[in-house]
């Protein structure tokens, strides 16, 4: 038995013919029985809970900080992000070897247990433990869900079905801030964590009796743990998590806790990069690698992975800095700023469904047109973001958001199926794991890179405001103080200059985002050329 090619439990139970032979899921449409229509909506619900968690916690951070008497509340976010990123390749390997069902159920349990611990936490240390556990589950749920959808749905139909999964997940971004505000205002912040427990329980009750059993290969893997352990990539799994963490930590602390030139930032970054390089060299010669290097030798596949990285960056980039725009320039409350982001969220929901439908209808290489259109729309929208100043009309703000959201939404459903199409069924688990790992990794870059651009722009122009105001805005102060309370604390003359500085810094970040999107356009061309060469 090899770890690379077991038939999955969902395939076995849902797509097996009456004579026991397996259907060809790559090209032929599948008849779907009642179990599919229990599994698929439940996977969507689980994805919604995970994305909702990511947006709901932000609204409660001030309340958590006051309740636990701590100023280190940022680690409530970081602990979850780190845990959800570093264990994704390992989760995919375990799901491939031991079956999708036990790994999905285990991650749902971890997500629920971590939520319960976080909600009951009496101290910051306890809440961080809960968030680490919750993050492991929260990172694994969408990954295993994508593997299950890939098992159940033939390749031509995957964009459509994954589009529905992504659209449901996007709804979590819309529901989270609203629900979080209601909970914080009318109950305890602890309920933003506890609300996940019944959702996790409902998912377990729906999935446990319906998902299939282990295949023969997976039963052998359990029975022969010694042989399975010998196929386990111990070196890769020992190198990847600490190397990733060594990069993520300074990315979250740089420019805030320590200067970017500090040895506390540079040293872990260098060590992390060296660790990833060492892992890449080792994986090239490893018999059973955690991340096979052949996944990166395919030009089209490499292009698609990088497109996904950029798209994930842009999602965070736009959401974070539009919030700064609404609060500091338009002088809105946090709740109103969240409402103003609705065109972005709704646009992503609608266009992820449309992108999935288009990806399913367009044959072969023609689906690349969806990617091309997506990056063009994002580049156009981000270029037009230069119009966003204190006088921008509501309609203008909404339309510009929809243009960028349309590009993001189109890509959400098409990238993973296009990537999977580059490889055999044996590689689906590993390429999906790398896809999710890079997307999670990109989320941190999507906050860090624009913060560098934003802070440097502020620092280079802050002298015009005078020392008393400038000292509050320099060295990251503009981001930390971005609120209507801050801007309205000045007289009209200074206030106009402060708002103008925010507009100037935001315009620089939009240009920066546009440059990455243009790189994405070049990668689409590389994908096309790689496909023709293949």
Give a verbal description of the structure:
With 534 residues, the chain is mostly helical. It has 24 helices and no strands. Helix 2 packs parallel to helix 7 (158-186) and helix 15 (299-329) packs antiparallel against helix 24 (492-533). It is globular, with a radius of gyration of 23 Å. The model is unreliable at 1-27 (pLDDT under 50).
> How much helicity do the residues have?
over 70%
First-residue to last-residue Cα separation? 31 Å
Strand fraction equals under 5%
Structural class: mainly alpha
CATH architectural name of the largest domain: Up-down Bundle
What is the N-to-C succession of helices and strands?
Answer: HHHHHHHHHHHHHHHHHHHHHHHH
Overall mean confidence score, pLDDT: 86
Q: What is the fold named in CATH at topology level of the largest domain?
A: Growth Hormone, Chain: A
CA-based shape: globular
CATH class type of the largest domain: Mainly Alpha
The total number of structural domains is 3
| Biggest sheet layout | none
Low-confidence parts, pLDDT < 50 over ≥5 residues? Answer: 1-27
**Count of helical segments?**
24
**The CATH fourth-level homologous superfamily of the largest domain:** MFS general substrate transporter like domains
User: How many individual β-strands?
Assistant: 0
CA-atom Rg in angstroms: 23 Å
